[in-house]
């Protein structure tokens, strides 16, 4: 068989080390994740935009108090965490796909993929900490314009 022809669909696989024979098909699961997370992200993002920009006073209501109130609500905490996690993992997987498609050097490719996942992991940890550990009154002093609002909490 020459390089210009394809093997029959049911013929045994070659001994090429780049062809996976056993174990989970991670590329398939990554492909499915991209499709499912993309649909869920569209719902989450448009829900986020609608609740922030269209409900109530719209964009004029966006201030420190609005964000503090929203991050104090467990529903919006879960909403924001889902959006954060899905978006970062979706983006990191997309970048991994681009690196796998265009970077030919094995060492450079592995280093870039590693760096992408480290950056995504770090952003996920930091974003999760912000959402769950957010204290709107941290560092507010008696001189601050927010002092009275924090006293009411």
From TrEMBL:
CDD domains to which the protein is assigned, alphabetical: SQR_TypeA_SdhD_like
Regions that span the bilayer: 32-55, 75-92, 112-134
Localization: Membrane
UniProt KW keywords: Heme, Iron, Membrane, Metal-binding, Transmembrane, Transmembrane helix
Region (Disordered): 1-21
UniProt key word Transcription regulation: no
InterPro entries from the UniProt entry: SQR/QFR_C/D, SuccDH_FuR_B_TM-su
Key word Cell wall biogenesis/degradation present: no
Taxonomic superkingdom: Bacteria
The name this protein goes by in its record: Succinate dehydrogenase hydrophobic membrane anchor subunit
